[in-house]
Amino acid sequence: MNAKLDTTVTTRPVTRQTFDEVLVPTYAPAAMVPVRGSGLDLWDQNGKHYLDFTSGIAVASLGHCNPAVVEALTRQANTLWHLGNGYTNEPVLRLATALTEATFADRAFFCNSGAEANEAALKLARKYAHTKFGAHKSRIVSCYQSFHGRTLFTVSVGGQSKYTEGFEPLPPAIEHVTYNDIESARAAIGDDVCAVIVEPLQGEGGVVPGDKAFLQELRDLCTKTGALLIFDEVQSGMGRTGDLFHYMTYGITPDILTAAKALGNGYPIGAMLTTDELAKTLGVGTHGTTYGGNPLAATVALTVLDTINQPAFLARVKEASAKLRSTMEKLVADYSQVFTLVRGAGLLLGLVVTDAWKGRSKDIQRAAEANGLMVLIAGMDVVRLAPALIVTDAQIAEVDRILRLSLDGMIKAA
User: Fold this and answer.
1) What angle, 0 to 180 degrees and rounded to 10, lies between the N-to-C axes of helices 67-77 and 295-308?
2) 150 labelled as ligand-binding?
3) Are strands 228-232 and 256-259 parallel, antiparallel or unpaired?
4) Is 131 known to sit in a ligand binding site?
5) Annotated binding residue 234
6) Cis, peptide link before residue 254, omega less than 30° from 0
7) How far apart are CA 32 and CA 75, in angstroms?
8) Structural domains in the chain plus CATH codes
9) Is residue 284 part of an annotated ligand binding site?
10) Cβ-contact 193, 140 below 8 angstroms
């Protein structure tokens, strides 16, 4: 018998210090530990209330413990959990049908995360190019400061050296261009390129919107060279910008689209969407996943999709987006010593700090948290807001109040 086994393990008290004792230190979580959530409201171990403007990094877009999602998950949990990939299931068939009907795509591949969705997209692109053109067409073009996941392949494609240092040698034939720089893209995208992957709205890289002309040029270059255009909509998709997917806002259609995060509202699921022609490349045995598209995940995702992909719901997202942006633009104007501008799209906004406050986005985040507001950062110079899509005008007013309170305290203490 294991001497360390404790039959009270499920009820044993744990604290933030427990993280430092038993978890691999890949994160530096906040001092407080959330234990309960409802909508945009969270409570920690001490009963303190927080307004959550992170939605778990743009994941819980329908809010914590959304009743419709809870009901769907509970119903499926009492029906069928998992099947090996030698079998299909009804929920995944319904989800794939709904996603393809709602988008440009004809086919879907399901996995467990955004990184896996991007991995599948990149593997598809390589395999398609090798099959159609030969092994010479294998180079992948991405953008600096992008983020596509944490596998060795996707982190190499991401173009942020801080995430690849110490993990060399990295996968070869990957090149990076400057985001929104058309000439940089033209210089890099030649006949040996199999794929161009881009976030139409960079999230982790600082909440930077893609210029329509830049994204259109990527589309045109891919069409010209026979490369595949991959839109990474892991963070910008599923209603975040007011359209179901952000490519719809631009009217620019990719060959492959990846989604995750909000697709499951917190239940792990990722998706790669593509066309009939490209999907044929991944025949039986060429790619796979044990858990991807299991009945539990598919049921949750279909409920989320059905809720978000409604005209009235998306119209409200656009209305809330306009309200949040105008509120934050007023805040930035009033605190011009701290912030320079608001950028982003929909309900994914970044407040960019001034030169005098460079490196202090984390400090602003901590000050807000102390006052009961959870926000994100995107690098050390951008405060990121990504509330649930169900955010109310009253909650937008509250985030404004708490940010002002927090900034006043920081300025006074300086």
Assistant:
1) 160
2) yes
3) parallel
4) no
5) yes
6) no
7) 32
8) 16-65+311-413 (3.90.1150.10), 68-308 (3.40.640.10)
9) no
10) yes
Name the residue among 41, 25, 19 with its Cα closest to residue 394: 41
pLDDT tens-place values along the chain, 414 residues long = 455 555 577 889 999 999 999 999 999 999 999 999 999 999 999 999 999 999 999 999 999 999 999 999 999 999 999 999 899 999 999 999 999 999 999 999 999 999 999 999 999 999 999 999 999 999 999 999 999 999 999 999 998 999 999 999 999 999 999 999 999 999 999 999 999 999 999 999 999 999 999 999 999 999 999 999 999 999 999 999 999 999 999 999 999 999 999 999 999 999 999 999 999 999 999 999 999 999 999 999 999 999 999 999 999 999 999 999 999 999 999 999 999 999 999 999 999 999 999 999 999 999 999 999 999 999 999 999 999 999 999 999 999 999 999 999 999 998
- Find out whether 346 is annotated in a ligand binding site: no
110 annotated ligand-binding residue: no
199 labeled binding residue: no
Instruction: Name the residue with tokens 């805040």.
Output: 331
79 annotated to bind ligand: no
- Alpha-carbon distance of 293 to 137, in angstroms, equals 31
Is 289 assigned to a binding site? yes
Q: Please, are residues 214 and 202 in contact by the beta-carbon 8 Å criterion? A: no
**Residue 370 assigned ligand-binding role:** no
CB 139 within 8 A of CB 232: no
